[in-house]
Design goal:
- It holds the Pfam family Fungal_trans.
- One of its GO terms (molecular function) is DNA binding.
- It contains 28 helices and no strands.
- It is an all-alpha fold.
- It has four domains: about 50 residues, Irregular (CD2-Gal4), CATH 4.10.240.10; about 30 residues, no CATH class; about 240 residues, no CATH class; about 200 residues, no CATH class.
Length: about 675
């Protein structure tokens, strides 16, 4: 093709004496070859004079360069058509896998083609008034409530450092840095794993997330994954599935990145995640089951990388979409056949309760209000005989019926557990400031603990994490028991954490001490229950052999939060109960510290491939050093209430700990003490 000249060319094309299409700010040639595209100021006037609304100015008012460029648009489109014909010829010679990869990348490239060129208009130079806003490098602090471990550690920091020094050192936290949302300009080739690798990543998801949140159908997943290589990439209806698999690949890629290897790239999961966001663009405008599934899977990746605030927002959207299509009520299905109607209704129930369970988990982790209220929904529990979540064909019984029922029993148990979580949040950690008498507070906590113990007793034998399981080969059951154990001990520690250090730190408050002495043994029991539950959480890690075992065999999406909660309790307990008779005959201060150090070692081991684990390790290191400095500086003798120096209480500790009785009783409302107001009855398992 003979080289043609154009009145408006970039500096690079002019230097190479090559034809320039005149597109600004980056011409097509420089974009294709990766050159740096620069324009002399005298040649940019044609585009700066272009009207913002995109309407064509009269030719007599346009510069000569603009007129010439408009004339060259026809040849530009003709050239693009030639490229398309060449691609079609090459595509016909490729196999199915290469064709899909080619189509995905072409689809991405075509979406980035300027709309102005598609309509035969001049491209507009971005003016100052139309530039995209730049994101601030600093993230505003987010709210965390009293039940959050971050709230507890912040209080400890304030009490040991003082408010002035705490402001200088910054607030503790372990959230990961933000992710970029500017995926419209995704210019790297879209990532599609080889078929064998895709099935491996899917199996990682099925063996970790799916056994805990079975809102998807195993059979449907494999069918849609197989069709991924055959579907028309430009079919808009299939975009949600492409987004869902991208998020699943992101989870699988992240999980398989443990243990970390220096020679292994560790950012591939972020590419899958960005790809999922790309395909799920505008998904909020279409309320459907597949859209909710996409958001749910996205939530679990965000939880895994500790993007908790972003997960909170994403889950809120998913819940609203679920309510928009009526998932929160038991409605008659409009499916054509009874079998299809039953399967559809079962999947809707599993989806709704997955939203419910995850909502309780995040509310407990962040100390924020729950989005789903039991009295506003009425959905039957998933059936134990529901096989569609775990089998490939419900008619061929590829898994033993008892095994399938046992798998679904875990999900029902977690739903029941989540109802207890709701009561703990409402009765112990609500943001009200109404004081309760100590006996009411103790009774409420004791009642919740009894419910939790009864829940454990009602678990099926294969899910009893406090019993032996010799010769059992099921990895899924082992992982489900680990998940239940983590949830149980974590919630029990939170039930009794308001009573931590209570008898020691209220010695100079006569009004509370008079009441406290009447229930001294009960409060001592509550203190020990909190410490013991934290120790049991740490002991779950005693037999973890490597990072991979921790990530795959435990609920990684909530482990960092649970371990920080346990270790913070243990560090504080080791400092204040070192020589107290509370630990005598039960454990020792050194054992308490060892268990706290186990959590710290886990975070350090995972920090190579997890920013959140690294931040958590740094946060606990600071807490440990603060604890040591506080013990040394105050020179605490063997702890005796009568011998405790006054500055340790009023001057060194904030209201959450130094005035811990007042801090604890403000969480309860006397109207919530009655159990008769509950609108949600925990199911019998």
């Amino acid at each position: 093709m003979p080289r043609g000249s154009i009145g408006c060319s970039c500096d690079k094309c002019r230097g190479l004496k090559a034809k320039c299409d005149g597109r600004q700010p980056i011409c097509g040639r420089c974009e294709g070859y990766g050159f740096q595209c620069n324009w002399s100021m005298r040649r940019r006037t044609a585009f700066q004079e272009k009207r913002d609304d995109g309407a064509d100015q009269p030719l007599e008012n346009s510069s000569p360069a603009a007129v010439e460029q408009l004339a060259n648009l026809a040849s530009y489109h003709q050239m693009m058509e030639s490229y398309e014909m060449l691609i079609d010829e090459i595509r016909a010679k490729l196999d199915a896998s290469d064709r899909l990869a080619l189509d995905l990348n072409l689809s991405n490239i075509r979406r980035q083609k300027p709309r102005d060129l598609a309509h035969g208009q001049l491209p507009r130079h971005p003016s100052e008034g139309h530039q995209h806003p730049k994101h601030s490098s600093t993230t505003p602090p987010s709210y965390v409530g009293k039940v959050s471990e971050i709230h507890f550690i912040r209080a400890v920091h304030r009490c040991m450092q003082g408010p002035e020094l705490s402001e200088l050192t910054g607030e503790p936290g372990y959230g990961s840095p933000g992710l970029s949302d500017h995926l419209v300009s995704l210019n790297r080739p879209l990532l599609l794993p080889p078929k064998e690798k895709a099935y491996q990543l899917l199996n990682v998801y099925l063996s970790t997330i799916h056994i805990a949140y079975p809102f998807l159908s195993r059979k449907q997943l494999f069918e849609e994954l197989e069709s991924l290589w055959n579907k028309d990439c430009d079919n808009v209806e299939y975009q949600p599935w492409r987004a869902l698999f991208s998020f699943i690949f992101a989870i699988g890629s992240y999980y398989t990145s443990f243990p970390h290897r220096k020679e292994t790239p560790s950012s591939q999961h972020f590419r899958y995640f960005q790809q999922g966001l790309y395909f799920s663009y505008g998904i909020d405008s279409n309320c459907s089951l597949i859209s909710i599934w996409v958001l749910l899977v996205q939530c679990f990746f965000l939880l895994a990388i500790c993007q908790t605030d972003r997960c909170w927002n994403t889950l809120g959207l998913a819940i609203r979409m679920g309510q928009s299509i009526g998932l929160h009520v038991e409605a008659s299905s409009t499916s054509s056949t009874q079998e299809t109607a039953t399967e559809s209704r079962s999947q809707q129930r599993r989806t709704w309760y997955s939203l419910y369970v995850l909502d309780r988990l995040l509310a407990l982790q962040l100390g924020r209000p729950m989005a789903i209220h039991e009295e506003d929904s009425h959905v039957e529990l998933p059936s134990l005989q529901d096989q569609s979540a775990f089998t490939m064909d419900v008619n061929e019984h590829t898994l033993d019926d008892a095994h399938v029922s046992s798998m679904m029993a875990y999900f029902r148990a977690v739903i029941c557990f989540s109802s207890i979580v709701s009561q703990v949040i409402r009765e112990l950690y609500r943001p009200s400031q109404i004081d309760l008498r100590p006996d009411q507070m103790l009774h409420s906590a004791s009642s919740l603990d009894q419910q939790l113990a009864q829940w454990k007793e009602n678990l099926p034998r294969h899910l009893r994490f406090d019993r032996g399981h010799t010769f059992e080969r099921s990895i899924s059951f082992k992982r489900q028991r680990n998940m239940l154990a983590v949830k149980f001990h974590h919630l029990r520690a939170l039930i009794y954490r308001p009573f931590l250090c209570l008898p020691l730190l209220q010695a100079h408050n006569d009004s509370y001490m008079d009441l406290l002495m009447q229930h001294k043994s009960d409060i001592s029991h509550a203190e020990w229950a909190c410490i013991s539950a934290a120790q049991e959480t740490a002991k779950l890690l005693h037999h973890v052999v490597d990072e991979r075992s921790l990530v795959h065999d435990f609920p990684w999406w909530q482990m960092i939060s649970c371990l920080i909660c346990a270790s913070s309790i243990l560090f504080v307990a080791e400092a204040f109960y070192r020589d107290h008779d509370l630990l005598e005959g039960r454990t020792s201060a050194s054992c308490v510290r060892d268990d706290a150090e186990i959590c710290l070692q886990v975070f350090k081991a995972l920090s190579a491939n997890s920013d959140a684990a690294r931040r958590a390790a740094d946060m606990l290191e600071r807490l440990s050093h603060l604890r040591l400095s506080a013990v040394v500086s105050t020179d605490v003798p063997p702890i005796s209430v009568s011998d405790m120096p006054a500055p340790l209480f009023a001057g060194s500790w904030p209201s959450e700990i130094s005035n811990s009785m007042e801090w604890s009783i403000q969480f309860l409302d006397h109207t919530s003490f009655s159990r008769g107001d509950s609108h949600f009855n925990a199911p019998d398992l």
